[in-house]
């Protein structure tokens, strides 16, 4: 899907602004001889599902209450000019009024965090990869990009929201009855799951999908009780908790009615277990799978455009990403190799907050905070 006209207009002005670094030159860091992967993961916390919902996030909320407050204030400041501040007031009143409609345990979790700090809403752009190495081992990796095209810092040449979010990146070990259920990567103060691995079973990551019948319509219908759709990142939590294998995860993510359209990227622990699910709110529009009988399907790379659509030239991470994966080759798939691909411009850009690397078989999850040095494309 092409970018909306107002995004094109914004980027046209953005590119020719004197306050910006020169336009990027696409690069692939694979095979350049420089060790990029640092194996220095984001801090890890535990969420115990046996603890009362309103209490289970207390440690994280207390540890990051100042950073979450900073982000909350940035959201308020950036949205305050909209309708002379009335939009901000509406959002605050709206979420306060409708919190009681949220399902258990998410309602109680949000209330518990809100007793310490305010919680912002997350919107994401991203690039995800699922790949198989020459020995049939499955890997998954993703960049999470965030910024909302708001709050450009003309001094540091970075998005204000992205700068703040880098301070909030964490890994979470989700436990029940003293046992590890799964691991996830995300932000302190955010109770959903965008990126996760269930050791020995499967991995899931979510990419935003743009559609006219999108998330705002889904929320409106939910408010009006027209239909009972699932919040996307809460569905992911439920699948991570309850699904026992790759096929079950793919099925569950394909059939549930969603609040917003998305891409689900799933990898398993067995050879050939890799899929990208293109979802509308109502159904799976397409499921792409790895295919050992096709030379170009040893990996799947998904950005924020439907596979059958041509990416906008202002936001084409797919073409250079695939070129870099082809250069990497099946025999070099590893955390090091995938990190090099996801650290290559423009796959890495000014909106990139972190890179996560996962493997279902070992249960490994490593999350690296990212920053794109100038010159670097803004999205």
Task: Report what the structure shows.
- The protein is of the alpha+beta class and 379 residues long.
- It has one domain: Penicillin V Acylase, Chain A (4-Layer Sandwich).
- 29% of the residues lie in helices and 24% in strands.
- The chain has helices at 5-15, 58-63, 65-79, 86-98, 106-114, 160-165, 215-223, 232-242, 246-255, 318-328, 335-342, and strands at residues 44-48, 125-132, 138-145, 152-153, 158-159, 169-176, 179-187, 195-198, 202-208, 262-268, 274-279, 284-289, 299-302, 352-359, 364-369.
- The strands form three sheets. An eight-stranded mixed beta sheet has the order 1-6-7-8-9-10-11-12, with helices on one face. The protein has a five-stranded antiparallel beta sheet with strand order 13-2-3-14-15. Strands 4-5 form a two-stranded antiparallel sheet.
- The chain is globular, with a radius of gyration of 20 Å.
- Belongs to the acid ceramidase family.
- Helical proportion? 25-40%
The total strand number stands at 15
Poorly predicted sequence stretches spanning 5 or more consecutive residues = 1-21, 119-124
Number of helices: 11
Explain briefly what this protein structure is.
This protein is of the alpha+beta class.
């Amino acid at each position: 899907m092409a970018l909306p006209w107002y995004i094109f207009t914004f980027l046209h002005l953005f590119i020719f602004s004197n306050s910006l670094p020169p336009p990027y030159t696409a690069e692939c860091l694979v095979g350049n001889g420089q060790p990029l992967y640092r194996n220095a993961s984001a801090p890890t916390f535990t969420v115990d599902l046996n603890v009362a919902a309103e209490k289970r996030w207390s440690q994280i909320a207390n540890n990051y209450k100042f950073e979450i407050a900073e982000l909350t204030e940035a959201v308020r400041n950036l949205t305050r000019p909209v309708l002379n501040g009335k939009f901000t007031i509406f959002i605050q009143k709206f979420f306060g009024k409708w919190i009681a409609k949220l399902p258990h345990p998410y309602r109680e979790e949000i209330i518990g965090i809100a007793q310490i700090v305010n919680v912002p809403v997350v919107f994401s752009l991203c690039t995800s990869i699922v790949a198989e190495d020459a020995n049939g081992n499955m890997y998954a990796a993703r960049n999470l990009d965030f910024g909302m095209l708001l709050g450009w810092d003309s001094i540091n040449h970075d998005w204000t929201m992205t700068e703040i979010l880098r301070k909030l990146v964490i890994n979470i070990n989700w436990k029940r009855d003293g046992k590890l259920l799964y691991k996830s990567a995300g932000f302190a103060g955010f109770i959903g799951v965008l990126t996760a691995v269930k050791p020995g079973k499967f991995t899931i990551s979510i990419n935003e999908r743009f559609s006219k019948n999108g998330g705002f319509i889904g929320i409106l219908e939910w408010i009006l009780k027209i239909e009972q759709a699932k919040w996307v990142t809460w569905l992911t939590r439920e699948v991570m908790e309850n699904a026992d294998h790759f096929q079950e995860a793919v099925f569950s993510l394909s059939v549930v009615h969603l609040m917003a359209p998305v891409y689900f990227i799933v990898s398993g622990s067995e050879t050939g277990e890799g899929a990208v699910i293109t979802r509308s709110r109502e159904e799976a529009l397409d499921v792409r799978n790895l295919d050992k009988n096709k030379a170009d399907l040893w990996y799947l790379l998904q950005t924020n455009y439907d596979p059958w659509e041509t990416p906008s030239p202002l936001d084409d991470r797919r073409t250079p990403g695939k070129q870099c994966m082809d250069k990497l080759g099946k025999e070099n798939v590893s955390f090091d190799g995938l990190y090099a691909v996801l650290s290559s411009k423009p796959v890495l850009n000014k909106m990139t907050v972190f890179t996560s690397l996962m493997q279902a078989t070992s249960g490994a999850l490593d999350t690296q905070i990212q920053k794109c040095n100038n010159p670097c494309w803004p999205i």
